[in-house]
Design a protein that fits this description.
By secondary structure, the protein is mainly alpha-helical. The chain folds into two domains: 51 residues, Arc Repressor Mutant, subunit A; 141 residues, Tetracycline Repressor, domain 2, CATH 1.10.357.10. The protein contains ten helices and no strands.
């Protein structure tokens, strides 16, 4: 019995990994269960046994990727961490997650092309709490007077996320236009610092404004 349980877990891992590769390459609509089974080196019937159908398998692939992303947020959201430091850590963590997980970028790219219906359902069901926690960092900064009072936390988080995602989703085109290998570490680090400076110059209280003690505030 123990051997069968271990084999079942391994088979599910193989199917999920194979499904992710096929969905990344072809998108949901063009992916075929036969191709996923062949990639995973399993009988096609096992996909239906473990996952029900192609859409449920795809949903689990999306869930796994979203869970990996939102797992990054915890270190930045400790209540003892100053909001600016926490928010910058969040932006940097998200950027390097995208750099190290091109499959996530491709999957979300396919979803955008398809109208985002499936990813939207997964986000509503599994990631709503994660998005709310991201917004909380901005809210704390607003309450403490280090971020502008007129900020909408959800729109702010959206902008921070989209800046990095837009770069990675268009990396090949930008590389041709800029005649650079944009995957090189130094190019990535330079762009990340640009994104951080660009974002926080826009959301932080102006350095010229002083707090009650007379000290200038700055990000």
């Amino acid at each position: 019995m123990r051997t069968r349980k271990r084999d079942a877990k391994q088979t599910k891992r193989q199917i999920l990994a194979a499904a992710e590769r096929i969905f990344v390459e072809k998108g949901y609509d063009a992916a075929r269960v036969d191709a996923i089974a062949a990639e995973a080196e399993v009988n096609k019937r096992m996909i239906y046994v473990y996952f029900g159908n192609k859409e449920q398998l795809y949903t689990q692939v999306l869930e796994k990727n979203f869970e990996n992303l939102f797992a990054l947020d915890a270190p930045a959201l400790e209540k003892s961490l100053p909001p600016v430091q926490g928010a910058k850590r969040l932006v940097r963590a998200h950027f390097w997650f995208l750099a190290k997980n091109p499959n996530y970028v491709r999957l979300l790219g396919w979803e955008i092309l398809g109208g985002g219906a499936r990813a939207g359902r997964v986000l509503l069901e599994t990631a709503a709490a994660g998005l709310e926690e991201l917004s909380e960092v901005i809210r704390r900064g607003i309450d403490q007077g280090v971020f502008r009072k007129d900020l909408d936390p959800r729109r702010c988080v959206m902008s921070l996320v989209v800046l990095s995602f837009g770069y990675f989703s268009r990396m090949e085109l930008l590389g041709v236009l800029w005649e650079q290998d944009l995957r090189q570490r130094d190019n990535l680090e330079s762009l990340l610092e640009h994104i951080v400076d660009f974002c926080f110059n826009g959301i932080c209280v102006a350095p010229s404004l002083a707090d009650e003690g007379g000290a200038p505030r700055s990000c």
